[in-house]
From TrEMBL:
<dbReference type="Pfam" id="PF07714">
    <property type="entry name" value="PK_Tyr_Ser-Thr"/>
</dbReference>
<feature type="domain" description="Protein kinase">
    <location>
        <begin position="296"/>
        <end position="587"/>
    </location>
</feature>
<dbReference type="InterPro" id="IPR001245">
    <property type="entry name" value="Ser-Thr/Tyr_kinase_cat_dom"/>
</dbReference>
<dbReference type="InterPro" id="IPR002902">
    <property type="entry name" value="GNK2"/>
</dbReference>
<feature type="domain" description="Gnk2-homologous">
    <location>
        <begin position="27"/>
        <end position="128"/>
    </location>
</feature>
<protein>
    <recommendedName>
        <fullName>non-specific serine/threonine protein kinase</fullName>
        <ecNumber>2.7.11.1</ecNumber>
    </recommendedName>
</protein>
<feature type="signal peptide">
    <location>
        <begin position="1"/>
        <end position="23"/>
    </location>
</feature>
<keyword id="KW-0472">Membrane</keyword>
<dbReference type="Pfam" id="PF01657">
    <property type="entry name" value="Stress-antifung"/>
</dbReference>
<dbReference type="GO" id="GO:0004674">
    <property type="term" value="F:protein serine/threonine kinase activity"/>
</dbReference>
<keyword id="KW-1133">Transmembrane helix</keyword>
<keyword id="KW-0675">Receptor</keyword>
<dbReference type="InterPro" id="IPR008271">
    <property type="entry name" value="Ser/Thr_kinase_AS"/>
</dbReference>
<keyword id="KW-0808">Transferase</keyword>
<dbReference type="GO" id="GO:0005524">
    <property type="term" value="F:ATP binding"/>
</dbReference>
<keyword id="KW-0677">Repeat</keyword>
<dbReference type="GO" id="GO:0016020">
    <property type="term" value="C:membrane"/>
</dbReference>
């Protein structure tokens, strides 16, 4: 699904605009023009460009234009950006952010320019500030509506007026609205010169623009894109209201807008990139989903996820869906959202939940999943009643299914994927109670050459591997640990996290370990399994084995834990020997709020829902040019009392949030009271004094997102490093102390006595200073004597307190925070105040202020895509670059950045071939496996349709096995590995995708080999899919067989060669003459290699039996090949066919077919479902091999002696 999105990116990426209450950023791209010359010194160009962008960005925060010059000589970088005069400041920055994001795609060319409907930007390696005309001047006409003469007259008049007025204005800007005579319509015109021009150059540019734009008439819209100016006319009002101004520019408030690069376009891009093959059924309208869920009716609520709520929905056609409503107001959660979409859309397996589509057109971001009626596993195994519905057979099947899903994620995808949140709540059950792994918000991927990745720690406490929790180094063994905990829960029915509330003497892992050591495992079985009824049954033996595997998975040393493929083998094979587990890690599960790590790690924890509850920040937070919103959560507390009238509470809460949100746009603090009596909702929100206005809103947005997680409790409070919020059903505004006051100490570094003294003094200073200020805020930086470091301190009281209450609160906080010393960081979280000290500078520069009466109103839009800059990833840039470069490099297969690709040019002029093309795109883009070739993208904008695949340098298998020289590069070990790889790929297609896929053209030419000679199945043009409830499908016949392929691999003989080469059917030689001479089997007559080769021949013959029912499934084939002791049945006779004339000439009068004898592609397509799959070539190979297989070892020895 992910790849299919890339395929249609060219048509999907329509850069939509975000509707804003104060105006329109008009960030739609009109034209981008890149210079033809390449940059000479790319190493120097990049840092110069970055610096130029930073300088312009700084200017754009306070002005509508910016220029910058960085570097000298030919490597200098000169930039200009300007917004048109009717854009507000924040809309200007949004438009500039879009331009800044897209223009770098011109690199490595040395310059370029981009025109948007709201702004312009240009970058060169030479000065161009005074240029007003050039060869790239052009015009763009829009809309297909032809207008009458009166409209044209009005356009010419409006354009002439704008040309006359703009050079006279200081900002070279003019806008006109001229009514069209005799109608109720008007003409709207905008003209703007760049401010680097002088008035005469501006007038000359606009006159040129006027002449060119007139060529768009009589069409209803036109734009002139000139070197020094921009002009537009339209019959639709595109003009924004002019921003409010004061009498003097000095009194303008500094509007610091949130720069969210690609705000609308890339958010839409990423979500739209999940839409398969222009299938509108995958792009859900918000209104459709709102209706499907009964307007988000609480009765349809299925549960609370990591950063969203899941609802059941029913579409108008009766289909049931699961709808995940996403709320994220900061870059971390936006990253998790993107990550979930990215991960789940790139994989396809029967044991992974399926993403159906999304909606991004409404006020929220929404994901749509398949609906699984039995919900999650935890609702069964932790429920005394529902647990009876899962007998041991069903639980064991769920365990196996979960293991298979993890094996796929860890080993069978292009990039290894670690889920990081395997737990019972994330294992969903379908109608047949089959397991499907869900919730990929925390998943991470990394390449084969990486032993681990370092990442911010996230997951659910109780399931997280100790080494990951302590050191942040992530490997697949973290998932193995989580899986071990999960299967222990499945066997015992005991919830691992429940140990925080219930008095167990040990954690579940410890309980299982102790019982295993004492050979009393059966005592901890879930009573619902009723194992005592069958004390000596296989069920009990299996359950004991599962416990042992669970203990192996939860061993303290990661290297001792088995891989998931080993786990699956242990579980599935009855005779698989199991090693003895070592001690489990020492973790106090009863106090698993990370108390043992609190000096090391910052965290937050919520035990009120099933979401992933621990997010530990070991990584550096994202730097911000103007400051840091410090929206990381320090502590959240929810009241124990439940809300009495929940329906009324929700209404009051929503209204309270609206009131506070409005106030927070213009102030650092807000209070609200809504309702009466017991259902009253009281709330306070406050940002600390060093946050800028936009950072304050970001921090508040995070608090507002997380605090509602306390519902249905009657209230709660949340402390972030930049702000505070509290909600209650009673008035608390004058409270300054309470039983929930606490401290949080961070960092494991112990500091010197000098540091302690400085910290104490700095805290006393800020406490004293805060009381003297109107906003109860103070900050201090105090150097540590004799050390090259400082102490940084912040203190703030809530503004609802009086000065005496503030003093009392800060004094209490001072006493408590001193307990964190000598550690290098501490926070006091009190009812009425907040104090923090640190040896790291966390303070923001104080925002510029003027007199309160002159402060401009800061209008900042807080939307769910505040952090959509994260959506603009390197991956999406790569996809775009591939698509842009295809037309240039399709002949060579090498992109401008040096990457090699395989480019498939498609020529089809009839509906059959067009169908095969669509089929190939559909099939290959819906699957992901290490043994399937990967589709990177496509080009459909040129004269041909083109598919882009990963480049596999060793080409196809047939080039090796049918070549006497190259065949020597494939010894038996490598060939056997290739056979196994092909089998694994086919097992995945047949059994592990949501819809079973039949390739229909398995042959050596369609098996590609990567750099390490690993097999990848290619060419899905003939593939077909069908549902589980279908025994067969009627389809055109095409393709060859796996059985024939493996016989070719062993013999080196091309099956199709029999059309031109005469084979005889009698066996006249020894076994060595049938095996490929390149294998040199005669040198090792009694080796395991020869035994393996004979086994492969045997399996090949079983696969090519005449009766389909006798042929083994691919999973059975894989088992036969992989297991040394797997018994093999005797094969029956092959099908009778005259393969020497197998162009099907004898049935051409009955069947429609086409044939291409000039190439090696699959050339027989026969519309008849019961005709046997084609085995092109003479039956001799198979007959000879059948005869050989019947020989005993003594016969072979005799034949060998005779031959010698």
């Amino acid at each position: 699904m992910k790849t299919s999105a890339s395929i249609f990116i060219a048509s999907i990426v329509i850069l939509l605009l975000v509707t804003r209450s104060e105006g329109d950023a008009r960030s739609r791209i009109i034209r981008i023009s890149c210079d033809n010359q390449k940059e000479n010194n790319q190493t120097l160009f990049i840092p110069n460009f970055v610096r130029t962008m930073e300088r312009i960005a700084t200017q754009m925060r306070t002005s509508h234009n910016g220029t910058a010059v960085t570097g000298t000589g030919p490597d200098s970088n000169i930039g200009l950006a300007q917004c048109y005069g009717d854009l507000s400041r924040d809309d200007c920055i949004l438009c500039y952010a879009e331009a800044r994001t897209v223009l770098p795609t011109c690199f490595p060319n040395n310059g370029g320019r981009i025109y948007l409907d709201g702004c312009f930007m240009r970058v060169q390696n030479y000065s161009f500030f005074e240029q007003y005309t050039g060869p790239n001047d052009t015009y763009v006409c829009g809309n297909t509506t032809k207008k009458g003469r009166l409209f044209q007259v009005s356009v010419r008049q409006a354009v002439s007026d704008a040309v006359a007025d703009a050079p006279r204005n200081l900002d070279y800007f003019a806008r006109k609205e001229v009514p069209v005579s005799g109608t109720n319509k008007s003409v709207y015109v905008l003209a703007n010169c760049w401010r680097t021009l002088n008035p005469s150059s501006c007038r000359a540019c606009l006159e040129n623009a006027s002449a060119s734009i007139s060529k768009c008439l009589p069409w209803s819209e036109g734009r002139a894109l000139n070197t020094g100016c921009f002009m537009r006319y339209s019959d639709t009002n595109f003009l924004n209201p002019l921003p409010a101004t004061s009498s003097s520019s000095n009194h303008r408030g500094k509007i610091i807008a949130i720069v969210v690069s690609v705000l609308s376009s890339l958010a839409v891009f990423i979500v739209a990139s999940m839409i398969m093959l222009n299938d509108s059924s995958l792009n859900f309208k918000y209104s459709t989903l709102e209706k499907a869920t009964g307007k988000w009716d609480e009765c349809n609520k299925l549960g609370q996820g990591g950063f969203g709520t899941v609802y059941k929905g029913v579409l108008s056609d009766g289909r049931e869906i699961a709808v995940k409503r996403l709320f994220f107001n900061n870059k971390f959660r936006a990253a998790d959202f993107y990550n979930e979409v990215n991960m789940i859309s790139s994989v396809e397996h029967k044991n992974l939940v399926r993403l159906l589509g999304c909606s991004c057109s409404g006020p929220e971001s929404i994901l749509v999943y398949e609906y699984l009626p039995n919900m999650s596993l935890d609702r069964f195994i932790f429920d005394a009643t529902k647990g009876k519905a899962l007998n041991w057979e069903k639980r064991f099947e769920i365990i196996i299914g979960t293991a298979e899903g993890l094996v796929y994620l860890h080993e069978n995808t292009k990039s290894r994927i670690i889920h990081r949140d395997i737990k019972a709540a994330n294992i969903l059950l379908d109608l047949r109670l089959r397991a499907k792994i869900a919730d990929f918000g925390l998943a991470r991927s990394f390449q084969d050459d990486k032993s681990h990745i370092s990442t911010a720690i996230a997951g659910t406490l109780g399931y997280m591997a100790p080494e990951y929790l302590a050191h942040g180094q992530l490997t697949e063994k973290a998932d193995v640990y989580s899986f071990g905990v999960l299967i222990l829960e499945v066997v015992t029915g005991m919830e691992n996290n429940r140990s925080k509330m219930v008095e167990y003497t040990d954690s579940l892992v410890s309980i299982a370990w102790n019982h295993f050591q004492q050979d009393r495992v059966e005592e901890i079985f879930d009573p619902n399994l009723m194992m005592q009824v069958y004390p000596n049954s296989n069920f009990q033996k299996e359950a004991i084995k599962v416990v042992q595997v669970g203990l192996l998975c939860t061993q303290e040393v990661p290297s001792l834990r088995p891989t998931m493929s080993m786990v699956l083998k242990m579980l599935a094979k009855d005779d698989e020997p199991l090693p003895s587990p070592s001690n489990p890690p020492f973790i106090d599960e009863k106090t698993m709020e990370l108390n043992g790590f609190i000096e090391k790690l910052r965290y937050y924890h919520s035990g009120d829902d099933s979401s992933s509850v621990a997010t530990v920040s070991r990584s550096h937070f994202f730097p911000r040019s103007e400051g840091d919103a410090r929206s990381q959560i320090v502590y959240r507390y929810c009241d124990a009392i439940m809300e009495n009238n929940q329906s009324l509470f929700v209404q009051n809460f929503i209204r309270t949030m609206e009131i506070i949100s409005n106030d927070m746009r213009t102030s650092h603090n807000a209070t609200a009271t809504v309702g009466t009596g017991l259902n009253t909702n009281y709330a306070i929100a406050e940002c600390y004094g060093d946050l800028s206005s936009e950072d304050c809103i970001l921090c508040y947005a995070e608090a507002r997102t997380v605090l509602p997680g306390c519902f249905p409790r009657s209230g709660g409070r949340i402390y972030l490093d930049g702000c505070f919020m509290r909600l209650q059903n009673f008035s608390f505004f004058d409270e300054y102390t309470g039983p929930n006051d606490t401290i949080v100490c961070g960092n494991t570094t112990k500091n010197s006595r000098s540091f302690e003294d400085s910290a104490r003094q700095a805290v006393l200073n800020v406490v004293s200073n805060a009381l003297r200020t109107n906003d109860y805020f103070a900050r201090e930086e105090m150097p540590v004597p004799t050390e090259n470091k400082s102490v940084y301190v912040l203190a703030e009281c809530w503004k609802t307190l009086n000065s005496s209450s503030c003093r009392a609160c800060l004094e209490n906080a001072t006493a408590s925070i001193s307990k964190c010393l000598p550690w290098s960081e501490g926070r006091a979280l009190n009812t009425g105040c907040f104090v923090r000290y640190s040896d790291t500078n966390f303070l923001n520069p104080l925002p510029a202020t003027s007199s309160s009466s002159n402060r401009g109103k800061i209008i900042v839009t807080v939307v769910s895509v505040v952090s959509s800059v994260l959506v603009f990833t390197v991956a999406s840039m790569i996809v775009l670059m591939i698509l842009r470069n295809l037309q240039r490099y399709s002949s060579t297969g090498v992109l401008s950045d040096g990457r090699e690709i395989a480019v498939k040019r498609l020529f089809f002029n009839n509906k059959f071939r067009a169908a095969d093309f669509y089929n190939e795109v559909n099939m290959i883009s819906s699957v992901e496996h290490k043994n399937l070739v990967r589709l990177l993208g496509c080009s459909c904008s040129g004269p041909e349709s083109i598919l882009v695949y990963e480049y596999l340098p060793n080409m196809s298998l047939d080039l090796f096995i049918f070549d006497a020289a190259k065949g020597k590069d494939l010894n038996w070990e490598k060939r056997f590995e290739i056979v196994i790889g092909i089998a694994e790929g086919l097992v995945y297609l047949h059994e592990n995708t949501k819809v079973r896929i039949i390739h229909r053209d398995i042959k050596a030419a369609n098996i590609l080999l990567d750099l390490r000679l690993r097999a990848k199945i290619a060419d899905f043009g003939l593939a077909r899919s069908f549902q589980d409830d279908k025994s067969h499908i009627s389809t055109a016949i095409a393709g060859t067989l796996f059985g024939v392929l493996v016989l070719e691999v062993v013999t080196g003989m091309e099956n199709n060669r029999s059309k031109t080469t005469e084979y005889t059917e009698s066996i006249q030689g020894t076994v060595e003459e049938i095996f490929d001479p390149n294998l040199m089997m005669h040198i090792y007559p009694t080796s395991n290699f020869q035994k393996d080769a004979l086994k492969v021949v045997h399996v090949g013959l079983l696969c090519t039996q005449e009766a389909p029912s006798l042929r083994p499934s691919m999973s059975k084939v894989l088992k036969m090949l992989a297991k040394d002791d797997e018994p093999l049945p005797a094969p029956s006779n092959p099908p009778f066919m005259d393969h020497k004339t197998m162009e099907l000439n004898h049935i051409t009068q009955k069947l429609l077919n086409y044939h291409k004898p000039e190439d090696s592609s699959s050339h027989a397509t026969v519309s008849h479902s019961h005709f046997y799959p084609r085995i092109q070539g003479d039956v001799t190979i198979r007959t000879n091999l059948l005869k050989i297989l019947e020989l005993t070892s003594s016969d072979i020895d005799t034949l060998r002696k005779d031959h010698n």
